[in-house]
Amino acid sequence: MKLSQKVQDCSLSPMRKYHPFAVDAESCGKKIYHLNIGQPDIPTPPQFFEAVRAYSQQVLSYAASPGMPDLIGAIQRYYRRLGVNYKEEDILVTAGGSEALFMTMLCILDEGSEVIVPEPFYPNYHTFITAAGGKIVPMATYPEENYNYANRERLEALITEKTRAILITNPNNPTGNSLTEKQLRLITKVARDHNLYLVCDEVYREFVYDHDKIFCAGKYRDIDQNIVIIDSVSKRFSSCGARIGMIISRNRELMAQALKFCQGRLCTATLDQIGAAALYSVGPDYFRKVKEEYRRRRDVCYAKLSQIPGVICSEPKGAFYMMAKLPIDNAELFQTWLLTDFEDRGETVMFSPGSGFYATEGKGIDEIRIAYVINEEDLSRAMDLLALAIEQYNNR
Amino acid sequence: MKLSQKVQDCSLSPMRKYHPFAVDAESCGKKIYHLNIGQPDIPTPPQFFEAVRAYSQQVLSYAASPGMPDLIGAIQRYYRRLGVNYKEEDILVTAGGSEALFMTMLCILDEGSEVIVPEPFYPNYHTFITAAGGKIVPMATYPEENYNYANRERLEALITEKTRAILITNPNNPTGNSLTEKQLRLITKVARDHNLYLVCDEVYREFVYDHDKIFCAGKYRDIDQNIVIIDSVSKRFSSCGARIGMIISRNRELMAQALKFCQGRLCTATLDQIGAAALYSVGPDYFRKVKEEYRRRRDVCYAKLSQIPGVICSEPKGAFYMMAKLPIDNAELFQTWLLTDFEDRGETVMFSPGSGFYATEGKGIDEIRIAYVINEEDLSRAMDLLALAIEQYNNR
C-alpha cells in the first residue's frame, strides 16, 4: 500500500520518542525527573474548570467554525490591553497553536515553497511545513550570541524566489532567546521588504525575564498583510490539554482562505472554548506570580548547569527552555543510557536530545533542551543527577 | 502575498455559507427551522458531563498523542460488542472524524493522487482531499437506485494508476443510503483486488432503519491492510462539540505514519477525551431510543416530502439525511430567497443546496439535502413551509 512522500518525510517527535524507555524505567520503580516536555506543573486557573462545570445545555453542540464569539471577544480584550487592536474577523480559534500553525502553512505553501526558520527550532514545525508541501530553510544561530536571529544579512542570504515566509518563535522554544523590540522590528522590516509572510509564534509571550515589557508583532501596522500571529492558551494559562489556540492576522485574503479549513473541520471543542474564554479573566497578579516562579526556576537551572564541568550554555531570557552543549559524544545515546542504565538512589532524568531541534544534519548531536517546568527543589536535584550522569557516562 | 493553490481550490462549506443570511433573518425576528446542519437536538448522555465535572487534577495537561488509554479501551470494548477485535495500537484518537479524515488523506495522497468517492458526498471530503494534494474522482449514483454505489463495474471504470483509495460513507451523508453486508463486501473486494485503501466513514453506524444489524467494515480480515475506519462520538452520542473522533486500522505502516501527525499536534483535548470515554458506557437502551426517534422523524420527513407536487426523493435507509430533487430552477437561489424574501407566520426553513455535495459541475442544482435533526412537530411544520415556499417561489 502506498504512503505519501510527505508523511514519510515527517519525523516522530524527538520529545516523545523516549517515551517507551521511560515507561520501562518507571515500571521498574525508577523515578524520572521530566525536563523533556513543555508541560508545566503550574495549576490551571480554576476559572477554566468553573466555566466548564457551569455548562448547562443538554446538547454539546458544534461551535461556530471561526470560534465562539465569547472567546474571540476575550482574546480581543487581552490584545487591547497589550495595545494591539484586533477585529473579530482577525481571529480564528484553532485546536491549539498546532492547528494554527498547520492551517497557516497549508494556506501559504505550495509544493517546494520555502520557510526560513532560525535553528534550533520547535521540531513540530517540520511536520506542519513538510505536510503542507513546503521545506524548512534553517538559519544558523549561535549559543555565543544567545541564539540571536535578528540579523538582516543572514536572513536575506537565505531568501530565494521560493521563500514564502519567515517563521519565528518569540520568546523561543528551545533556546530561551527573547527578542528586544528593536530586534523584532528589524525582522518585520526584512519580511516587509521582501514581501514575505512573517509567522510569529508568540505562545510564550508573557514569559520574559530581563524586562517587563510584553509586546506583540501585531503592533507594527505597516506589515498588516505580512504578519500572522500564532497564539495559544496552553502555556500562558498552563492549560495545554485544552487545545485552544488561534491564528491572528489582518490579512483578509489569508483569513478568508484559512476559514475554509476552519469550516472543513467544523469547529474546535465547545467546552474548551468556554473554559478558555474564562481563562482570560485572570488578573495581572496571576502572570506576575507565574513569571516569578519560572524566573526562579530559570535561575536555579542556569546556575547549576553552568557549574557542571564542560557544559556550555547561556542564560535564557524567555519561555521556559534552554539549550545546553554537554561534554558527551551523543545526546541520544546519553538519554537512552539515562533511562536504561543510570540511576542514583532510584532516580534519573529526562531531557530532549538536541539533534531533533535542527534541520541541518549533524547539528545538535551533543546538545540537549531542558524544559524547566518542575519546582525548584526537583530542578536542583535533576541538575545534580545530570552532573553525576555525565561523569559516570564518560567513565563507563 | 501568495496563497497556496490547494487552499484556493478548497471551498467554503455549503452547509455554512448561508449563515450570514440566517443571522440577518433571525435578527429581524424570523424563526428558522434548521435542517441545514447535522447538529442533532438529542440530549448528550449526562455521563459525558459528569465525567468532565469529576476531573479533579489541578493541571489540565497534555494527553498522550495517540489518545488516552481509558478512551481507547472504551472504544475497543465498543467494537468487541460489534464482533470486531481491535488492538490498542489500531486506534488513534483525533479531533473529530474531521481530523481522522484529513490525517488519513495526508498519509496516503501525493500530489495528483485520486480518491474515488460516490457522488453526492459530504462536502468537507473535498477540503481534506484537496488540502492533502489529491483529487476527488466522483462516481455517479442515482436517486432511482437509492444512491447505491456498490457496483463493481462502475467503480472499476474509474480506477487509474493514480487511484489510491475509495472513500465511502456508510450510512450515507447526504443521501441516507445504507449498505447491506453483501454490498459492503463487494466494495471491500474491489479495494482488495486493486490494492487500494478503502476509507470507510462509519460515523452514522447505529442509524439504520430497515434492519437491526449493525456492522463495521473492520470485520473483513482479508483486507486488514486496505481498510481505514473513520469514526466519531459526534453523531452516535449527540456530542458534536466534543470533537472526538478516531482513525482505526490494522495497517501498521499507515498507523506508524499517522502517529507522526498525532505527535505533531501533540494531543486532542483532555477533558473531551475523558467525557468521550464515559459516553461508551451508555447501554443498548440509549441507542434503541435514539434510533426510534430518528426513524419517526425520517417517516414524517419522507411522508410529507413525497406529497409535495414535483418533488423526487426516495426513502432514506440510514443516517439522518435525505436528498430531494425540487421542482425549482436553482436551490441556491431558492435558499437565499427563503431567508431574505419568504416567510409564513414569521417562519422559514433552511436546507443545504445540493450542488455543494457534487464534484461534477452542474449536478445537484435543483436538489437539497435535508437533515432531519429536529422534533417531529417542527419537522412537519418545516415540510409544510417547504411546500408553501416552492409554490410561492415558482409564482413570484
Can you give a write-up of this model?
Two copies of one chain form a homodimer. Chain A is an alpha/beta fold. Helix content of chain A is 38%, strand content 15%. Chain A contains 13 helices and twelve strands. Chain A has helices at 5-9, 19-27, 46-53, 69-81, 96-108, 124-131, 152-156, 181-193, 252-264, 270-279, 284-307, 331-340, 376-394, and strands at 31-34, 91-94, 114-119, 135-140, 163-169, 197-201, 227-232, 245-248, 321-325, 347-350, 352-353, 367-371. Chain A has a seven-stranded mixed β-sheet with strand order 2-8-7-6-5-3-4, with helices on both faces. In chain A, strands 9-12-11 form a three-stranded antiparallel β-sheet. A two-stranded parallel ribbon of chain A has the order 1-10. In chain A, strand 5 (163-169), helix 8 and strand 6 form a beta-alpha-beta unit. The mean pLDDT of chain A is 96. Chains A and B meet through helix 1, helix 3, helix 5, helix 6 and helix 9 of A and helix 1, helix 3, helix 5, helix 6 and helix 9 of B.
Give a short overview.
The structure is a homodimer of 396-residue chains. With 396 residues, the first copy, chain A, is α/β, with parallel strands linked by helices. Chain A contains 13 helices and 12 strands.
